[in-house]
Amino acid sequence: MGGVEITTADVLVIGAGIAGLSLGARLASEANVVVLEAESAPGYHASGRSVAFAHFGLGERIVRTLTAMSIEELAADPPDDRARYARPHPALHIARTDQLEALDALRQVHHDFGCDCELLLGDAVQSLVPALKIGSDHVHGALLDHRALKLDTDAMLQGHFRDLRERGGEVICSARVQAIRRLGGHWQVETSAGPYTSPLLVNAAGAWADEIARMAGAKPIGIDPRRRTVIAFETPSDLATANWPFVKTLGEGFYLLPEGSSQLLASPQDEGKSEPCDAAPEEIDIAKIAHRIEAATELKIARIAHSWAGLRSFAPDELPVVGFAPDAPGFFWFAGQGGYGFQTSSALAEIGEALALHQNCPQRFAERGLSPALFAPDRFVSAI
Ligand SMILES: Cc1cc2nc3c(=O)[nH]c(=O)nc-3n(C[C@H](O)[C@H](O)[C@H](O)COP(=O)(O)OP(=O)(O)OC[C@H]3O[C@@H](n4cnc5c(N)ncnc54)[C@H](O)[C@@H]3O)c2cc1C
According to the CATH classification, is domain 7-48+153-222+317-378 in 3.50.50.60? Predict the structure, then answer.
């Protein structure tokens, strides 16, 4: 990198999605942080494509605990003039007759997490979502969870961006990381916007996290990017959908939620394998979701207003990866946020901050059964 001026930071974070921005903003209270983003704006990939919802119907105990520990903060009144991060919006988990046992197990999980929730049958379900078909081949019962939240993911990204800047940090967009090497106890990072150096490098590159690890000479952990498709369609003018809950089938099927006053969003909950890329929807997944919605409801999808896809990136055990690489000093993993990167972001960034600064995790995590070892990268990669 001879001849070109190198920018020095205490911490370099690769990736300006929710992961990199939420952790970067916290670290900026204690250190000089620079976030490097390949695209021309933050949140271009997974973080700009989510359906922005928080609920307890996905993941297992650890993900649900992270969710429970995050949503209180997300739902809190915002300080000063900021936009609110989340508003209460119920989730309705619908089940056929053969799924009632699974529905009861889900009710128990919600109960264990202190959710205000209720089991509903036939007519009561239809009164909430009149378009749902009720009957032996369709919905028999449902769990209504009042603790779920509709998130404002733009407000979340902008809020962390603003915190980072106010604490002296920077986000450099159009700075694609192209090469990484370790020199004299520092990481030297070559980007399309020039060279950077720091002793601590945070890998928050989402679907590209393994690629970044390889560049740095660290072993990849097996990040698995899976495509998820969403369609938006207009609803008939005589159907008031704005107050419908987030509707999700148990197991394979679909989810459906209102977007403004006259549109619905829907996804077939697809999980197609993908390389890290600028994901686009595939015709087959669009056809699948239209078919499933028309089979399960009285809705007719005459025209799809728009559709998109994004990558949800999972570690092999589907838990987030937070901690120092055992095989590369000063290389910190913050990846594998799967399909819950927003709803777990507050707790994950708090754990990430403590571990990256070699501090103990706050006691409240241990009290909820969350230890750093659950997230440590050495569960996949051993020290050399
Ligand atoms: C359709 C869909 C619906 C979803 N719905 C929800 C939901 O309702 N609730 C929820 O909590 N979660 C949801 N998720 C999951 C959530 O969006 C993700 O968990 C989260 O956005 C992951 O954030 P991230 O910062 O790790 O990844 P990303 O947002 O992908 O950020 C990674 C960043 O790293 C950058 N990068 C990569 N390589 C380089 C490089 N070489 N140099 C510099 N920068 C680089 C990328 O450009 C990117 O901006 C959904 C996801 C999808 C796709």
Answer: yes
Domain extents in the chain: 7-48+153-222+317-378, 88-150+224-314
Average pLDDT over residues 358-369: 96
Superfamily of domain 88-150+224-314: D-Amino Acid Oxidase, subunit A, domain 2 (3.30.9.10)
Range 14-51 burial, b when 16+ CB lie within 10 A, else e = bbbbbbbbbbbbbbbeebebbbbbbbeebbbbbbbbbb
Q: What pLDDT shows up at residue 7?
A: 97
Whether 53 is in the pocket of ligand 1, judged by its Cβ within 6 Å, is yes
85, 151 contact by CB (below 8 A): yes
Q: Is 177 in the pocket of ligand 1 (CB under 6 A)?
A: yes
Does the Cβ of 176 fall within 6 Å of ligand 1?
yes
What rounded mean pLDDT belongs to the chain?
Answer: 96
* 137 pLDDT tier (thresholds 50, 70, 90): confident
Nearest to 357 by CA among 16, 3, 15, 33: 33
Q: Does pLDDT of 3 surpass 90?
A: no
Q: What is the mean pLDDT of residues 194-223?
A: 98
- The DSSP code for 205 is -
